[in-house]
Known about the structure:
- By secondary structure, the chain is an alpha+beta fold.
- It is about 35% helix and about 20% strand.
- The chain has 24 helices and 24 strands.
- The strands form seven sheets. The protein has a five-stranded mixed sheet with strand order 2-11-10-3-9.
- Bound molecules: 2-(butylsulfanyl)adenosine (IVH).
- 2-(butylsulfanyl)adenosine (IVH) binds near residues 143, 147, 163 and 201.
Amino acid sequence: xxxxxxxxxxxxxxxxxxxxxxxxxxxxxxxxxxxxxxxxxxxxxxxxxxxxxxxxxxxxxxxxxxxxxxxxxxxxxxxxxxxxxxxxxxxxxxxxxxxxxxxxxxxxxxxxxxxxxxxxxxxxxxxxxxxxxxxxxxxxxxxxxxxxxxxxxxxxxxxxxxxxxxxxxxxxxxxxxxxxxxxxxxxxxxxxxxxxxxxxxxxxxxxxxxxxxxxxxxxxxxxxxxxxxxxxxxxxxxxxxxxxxxxxxxxxxxxxxxxxxxxxxxxxxxxxxxxxxxxxxxxxxxxxxxxxxxxxxxxxxxxxxxxxxxxxxxxxxxxxxxxxxxxxxxxxxxxxxxxxxxxxxxxxxxxxxxxxxxxxxxxxxxxxxxxxxxxxxxxxxxxxxxxxxxxxxxxxxxxxxxxxxxxxxxxxxxxxxxxxxxxxxxxxxxxxxxxxxxxxxxxxxxxxxxxxxxxxxxxxxxxxxxxxxxxxxxxxxxxxxxxxxxxxxxxxxxxxxxxxxxxxxxxxxxxxxxxxxxxxxxxxxxxxxxxxxxxxxxxxxxxxxxxxxxxxxxxxxxxxxxxxxxxxxxxxxxxxxxxxxxxxxxxxxxxxxxxxxxxxxxxxxxxxxxxxxxxxxxxxxxxxxxxxxxxxxxxxxxxxxxxxxxxxxxxxxxxxxxxxxxxxxxxxxxxxxxxxxxxxxxxxxxxxxxxxxxxxxxxxxxxxxxxxxxxxx
Length: 713
Ligand code: IVH
């Protein structure tokens, strides 16, 4: 449809407009309108047909608004073919077309609270409602999947269609029948409805999406880019059996059409949006859960608050949502407000900050880890992702670069979801212009700043290249950073940048140096002073007394994590006992695999390491087993064995971490969201939506912090 060159020039032109337009704005309105229309058509094609946008939603919207503005200034230039004159199309020729009973419109978008207040003011102006009066709004998630219209006649599912171009969609009834949350029959007669059209969104739960992709990876198939593509792709599969396997779900968000047997419109029987969703829920449809996922707000201010709450909760929600939808609740007011050819005037989407964006891969830098693994890091043109500027993205290892076929100069799709570190989803091959350069992974240690080149090695079965003998000290620095970090010795006040500073000053060369710092000198450093030096001294003092499982974990032994460190610590009296341990002895302990065992043996057979530990012991670092090294409850025992647990709200006597540790010691497994899998919810103060959701499920045991403490003893 578009050649590679065309795509490249459309992409560059889009970026030029988005970056302010410059010379473009000197062109005639006619020319600019034509250009913007071509750009918008292209981006709609990438989004709706290919399911692979090259600009973010806000960027697309800005282009769209530029066009709308120019057209408003020059109405004589508006033609019926302009993208502003119809909703976007996702039609393809694989399925028969069917006309919707009423057009499926799009939504107006907003990105901040001012936009929402302006929307409220606009609705009031349009409806002649005085400014000081409140309008009631229903607010619910904006599901990020594929839209669907399902028609019921005489209580039976008659047909289902995708949105298509809004007027005509693709008929996908057989596929819709494979979606369990779409009832095949529903008692519409009880509501006096003979024929109805419901609109909703077809989605796939994030964890199921992940499972599907994991499975595909195992089978060597290409991976789906995201949950949305998996859902929209699922709707259009040829074989309904395959659709059923994908585990799609449909959330209904509106009743678009309803007539009785004589063909009379009966929509007005539902006085509010809230009521119609409630009724549909009673008929067996999946709708956003009342009071949790959707709510009625008495005015726009409350609606803004609900939108903000959800922006925070977005990542913990089991489905992908890209914003919230604010809808005038009263059906009568909705009818009075009516629609433009593009969207209803009574609703607006509040879009969350984009999680994906395109950027350019400028160069690759390399970092060395604590055991010498070389990690390539892509430096990209800075982009805004979910409210944060991202300019560095890890490329993990050479295989990652090869599997994604990344080149310097590529336009890349970058994603940052919640707390997850940003990553490169893919390179946009279709935007290459031939100037891109392959990334050549170095053969020698790229960090080494001495004159002695060190050849990198790759251990069989591992993805990383490693620098086997560090001659420049860079690995020691990483070891120290890890040694003092929170999960290891947990030395407060000795963060990464301070370790780097002390390392530069020559004060830290090995982990033993941490215990011989000169606090008088530290107090004199700029930015320190007596107080911080004293605090640091205290933290180091505390670390000297740490249980030995922390010390074991802090030694940067490859693959030796917190859990196995604890298991090993429980078996020894003194850390140096491990000098006498052989593979045979390790094989008797459950959960310690041969690879970790070999690594521990290698570490304790190395004279330098033993000297280092002896030095540390002489400096007062505890090497003997303590109470804390012994398991609180033998695995398979405890009051919560086999149960899943989740904490919500602020706990009064325990920190979240302590509570989780106690729960684990009692045999429970911690999970992160309320779902059908959850057994126990422990509620602190201000528990919020998790509690409501758990109560709605009806299968979750809810307990207070006090009750929890009693149970774990
Ligand atoms: S209301 C006539 N509510 O967003 C009202 N739409 O960008 C128009 N969407 O095509 C739709 N969640 O597929 C509405 N809670 C929700 C929604 C929702 C997702 C989709 C819908 C629509 C698109 C518009």
